[in-house]
Amino acid sequence: MRVGILGGGQLGLMLAESIQHLGHQALVYERDADSPCHQRLASVTTGTLEDTPRLQSFLQQVDVVTFDSENIPAAPLEPFAAKLFPSLQVLQTCQDRLAEKRFLSANGFSPVDFAWVDEGAPVLATAEKLGFPCVAKTIRGGYDGKGQTRLNGYEDAVRYDRKRQTLDSAPALVLESFVELLAEVSCVVARDASGAIWPFPVFENIHRNHILDFTLVPARLEQNHQTQALTMAGDIAQALQVVGLLTVEFFLAKSADRTPKLLVNELAPRTHNSGHVTRAACQLSQFDALARILTGTPMCRPTLRTGGYCMGQLLGDLWPSVAGALEATPLVQSSQLSELYLYGKTEARPGRKMGHFIVEAGCGDDALNVAQQLRNTVPSPK
Ligand code: AMP
Known about the structure:
The chain has helices at 10-21, 36-40, 52-61, 88-94, 97-106, 124-130, 154-165, 223-240, 278-281, 286-295, 319-325, 330-333, 364-376; strands spanning 2-6, 25-30, 44-46, 64-67, 114-117, 134-138, 148-151, 173-177, 181-191, 197-199, 203-208, 211-217, 244-253, 261-268, 308-315, 337-342, 353-361. The protein is an alpha+beta fold.
């Protein structure tokens, strides 16, 4: 089969490798001629999603197609909707924060309390009604905390509105209550063409500056919350009729009655940064699972291996030193290292994901400690 991937970053690259391992062809379409897929794969078409003739000629060549980001225009894909997995409808729901939250609420899944503000309208009255502190998020295009502003009170909202007034077109927003986080977890579930659901274990995520820093598994979460998260993730995939992967990001939040509450933060209908840990921790990785579904290969259970695993991110902040001196670090030499994967990006920028590593230990907590210690041995740039 010829499997198309829209997006040639690290998610596209690892998926392409899994497709190839199954004996199929992976064809990638990517705007940046210097992308990880350009560095490592033979068959990459360079083009933008706005270049309709080029995109359509790419789509004509493939049997099925998927994407490595939901922040892509849906309209040019419409004539090829039958080839798209997950579907155009899933893509459209998950690329619009408001549509996503409305879907979650309407189907009895619990998003964080939210309200919305129309394009050009001020936030103040809506923010006061929802309550402070809250977070203003753009409806489209945000990730890793981009397009988000915390509003602690009246003054912040007034200042925010003043800034909005200076914009030619102030974007429509979702306002979310700011929740006190006890933990952040994610669930990746695969749903195949027959409708069967294959859940990965619950991952616990630790962020720094809104960017995922470490993912550990098994998560340090009570069993009832783990079961609740897995059940909800499977039910959401079912309700959306996803064929492919769905990642559900959850907040474990403090609530007024002091009982921790599991709330849905957001959905991603694709492989996920937190799911990198599956490459060592599970018998089937998230990339292998999606490759199987796209190529109609029978699925197998993505069982968690024994022990604990932690994925640590290597960001561009470290890069100038890592690129030059990686071999000499205890990170590379550690007997607990299961995987070190560098994405082949030529330009390092602060906050840019350049690679990841996965370590193995007796439990999730131990694995996190090992990962933190090992990453600290990588010398920072001067
Ligand atoms: P997002 O891109 O929406 O997943 O947000 C990035 C990160 O910001 C999350 O992983 C949280 O750490 C934090 N965050 C986002 N929304 C909220 C919220 N409503 N309350 C508390 N923290 C939040």
